[in-house]
Each structure stands twice: as C-alpha cells, then as structure tokens.
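User: Assemble these into one structure.

Assistant: Restating your components, then the assembled model:
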Amino acid sequence: MPAEGATTHLIEAPAKEPLDVGQADSVVVENVTRAFTTRRGPVRALDGMSLRAGRNQLVAVVGPSGCGKTTLLELICGLQRPDSGSVRAAPAALMPQRDLLLPWLSALDNAGLALRARGASRAEARRAAAPWLERFGLGGFESTRPAELSGGMRQRVSFLRSLLAGKPVLALDEPFAALDAITRHEMQGWLARVLADQPRTVILVTHDVEEAVVLADRVVVMSPRPGRAVAVLEPEVPRPRSRTDPDVVALRERALQALGVGA
Amino acid sequence: MRLVRRYLPPTLLLAALIGAWELYVDLKGSSFSSILPAPHQVASSLYTDRALLWSSFLITAQEVLLGILVACAAALLLAVAIHFSAVVRRATYPLVIASQAVPVVILAPVLAFWLGFGILPKLVVVALVSFFSVVVTTLAGLSSVDADLLKLMRTFDASRLRTFWHVELPWALPGVFTGAKIAVAVSVIGAVFAEWNGSNSGLGYLILVSIPQLLSARAMAAVVVLALFAVALFGLLAAAERIALPWAHAPAVEVPA
C-alpha cells in the first residue's frame, strides 16, 4: 500500500523492542467471506471484506451495528477461520468490548493476566506489570479491585492487560464505547500517546467516526451486513489531531457519507 | 428504627403463630399434648433438657458441618470433571440426578451396615443429600464464564488448564457457596434420618427415642434446636463466603455493552 509513507509516527517513535513480523503489512485480510448458521438460517457476516494494516499502523474500522466488525477482529486474532478468502496477521491480542477484568484480582494482577496465561508466576507477572501501571496513570491503584476503579481506569487496565500479551497486533473492539463522553475523549488522547510511545499495529473497531478519524492512519468504512469495505480514508493530518481541525471535520463528513448517513 | 422495621414483622408473625399453636393445643385438651406439645412445654423442655440437647447438638452439628464440607469437595471435583469432559457429563449427570430420588430412609440402613455405627455413615448421608445442589450451582458457575473472556485468554495463548485455573475456577467458587447454602436445610434432615439408623447420640437419635416415651416436648425441643442450627449454618456460610470471596459481593459496576 503506497499510503504507508504518509504516516509520520513510524519515524518519530521506534519500537523499544522490535516486533518483527517479517513483512511490511502486519495484517492482510483479503476478500474474506464468513457466514454463520443460526436458528433462523444462515447469516453472512462478511462478504468480500478486505483490509490491510502496515506495521505499527492504526487502522480504524467503522460501520453500522452488526456489520461483522467483531467477526473481523476474531478472524484477525485467529479465533475464527474465513469460509473463503485469506487472513494473514501477525500474532494478535484481543481487547474485548467490555473491560472484562477479573473481579477477584487486583488491578496489578489483572494487568499481568496475559503473563500468567503463558505460565509466569504471580511474582514475575507482578514485577513485569508494576512499572506499567505507574506509566498508565494507575500508580497507587495496584491492589485495588476492578469494582473500585472508574470506567476509564478499568479500560486502561484492560488495555494494559492486552498490551502485556506482547503481541505485535492489538485488536481493539470498541474499547471506549461504554465510557461517558468526557472520559472517552480523554481515553482517545491517552491511547494516541501510549501508541506513540509503544508502537503496535492496531485494528480499532469503533462506531464513533470521529474517534476513527482522530486516531487512525487509515479508516476503513464497512457496509451493513454482509460487511465489506466500501471506503478507505487515509487521514494525513499531523498529530495530535484536534476534533475541530477542518481536515478532521472534512474527513469525518466523508466517512459519514460513505456510511450513508452524511448530511 | 431500622432495627424495628427489620425485626418487627418476623417477630410479630412468630408470636402470632406460637399463640395460635398454644391456643390450639389448649383447646384440644391435655391428652393431645403428648402428640403435639404446646409451645410452653417445648420451651420448658428446652430449659430443663438443655444439657442433653447441647451434647446431642454437638454430635449432629459435627455430622452436618463435615458432611457439607465433604459434599462441597466431592461436588467441586465432579463438576470440574463434567465441565472438562462431555463423556463424564453424559455418564454421570443422569445418575447424579437419579440419586437424588433415592429416599435417605432406604440408604441409611445400608450405609450403617457397610460403614458401622460411627460418624462415617452420617457424613455420607449428609454429603449425598447436599451434593446435588452444589454440583448444579458449581456447573452453572463454570459454564457462565463470559465467552469474550475465554476468547481473550485464547489470544493470550493460555492453555485449557491455565484458563481453568485463572478464570473458570475462581468464577465458579461463588456457585459452590450458593449450592452449600441451598443444601443446609436438607443436610440437617439428612443427619436426622442417618441417626435414626444405627446411632446412640445426636438430635435425630434424641427425637427417635423421645417419641415412643411420649416425651413429645423434648422431641419438639430438639426440632427447634435443629431449625435454629440450620438458620445459623446458613448465616455462617454467608459470612464465610463474604470473607473468602469478598469480590463476589462488591457492588457491581454496571457497564453497558
């Protein structure tokens, strides 16, 4: 994809630990079809869906409800296989829609869950996760259980948990959808800063067009079910992006038009 | 004021029931009280027989407590086996359900024959009658783990066993307590029936020997102790759950999907 050079943050922020996937694109979804059998007959979730994400790019996927966005993420994470077409992706960790923190674990132990899942001891996982909590503005909340954390904090712990899986690709499923508007804006800014510091290839599924345009290197607009890409926008607006930047507003309008809801 | 609102209704209801009972026995005449003793006779037995009731209570309480513990351990093991293996589920689940239909009165003599007259056959009876509800609630807990959480663990490359250990098992623990709380009442009844076969102590045994001696007030006093014990045991389990699994009672933060 030629647009890769248009992004700037690749040059600004080299990965601390190179996550080499051996190819220019970390995620390549080509002409994928995926159908499910339900009680009311077959449902085609995706039909001819394609998407590319270059290394350390953030690709936002926007689309109407039920357009197969979650299916797309699960294909990228290897949780599902396509019926036809191909999915090539570097190892990906999921960040689910709801934070799904384990209520019996502290913030620190929740953050280290991916390490525990790979066999690290509790002490090892804590040692590895502790400095991150500090960096994520969660210092002092190490031993707090999720029920006592705010929505934004829970989402940050959830993101950290997926980040510490150490996968080159992060699949974020509407990570901020459940937050109130103010917290959501804060978290979007926060995510941009974290990714500038810790580059990862990110597939960000969202129904918030503005979020997509503000954060992404590429915005893929999907059709209603069966989902496929109907437009690809490549915001070349320098970061940090303001919501009120005329270019951002114009891109948002283009994305909304592609979704068929433009004014 | 809150205390009054909380305790006044049950106190009033209890007083009314006891009053009606007293009146009923009084109207039926004194010979009837050897079948159904009046509350004041039960109260007097609770006092005069207190040493006997206490020593019997200790025996029965021990049987019930240990029996529930055995039931919880065995039920947890079986629920985990069923959860992991469809074959085990198909093989054992119908039997577990069917075993609940076997009356304890049939089983107790057989168990006494096999296991003697000590505490062991009583434990087995209590465990058998408590077992079922714990299996069901534990299984419900194991299978109620959020599907997205299991997907998350898969993208973290967690093995089946690690997912079980870190996610599914803790998730199911409140179910174990729920099952045990449901089992409290039947476990007390189970202990009484078990003591009716081959024992010489305990509240069940006390009831058994009091009735033919026309000591119905003493038998009823033993029943009162059993009922109070069931209530206390329920409270004890609830408290143990709050201490062991405080997160299960933390105010849930509702996050819309």
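Residues 252-257 of chain B have pLDDT under 50 and may be disordered.
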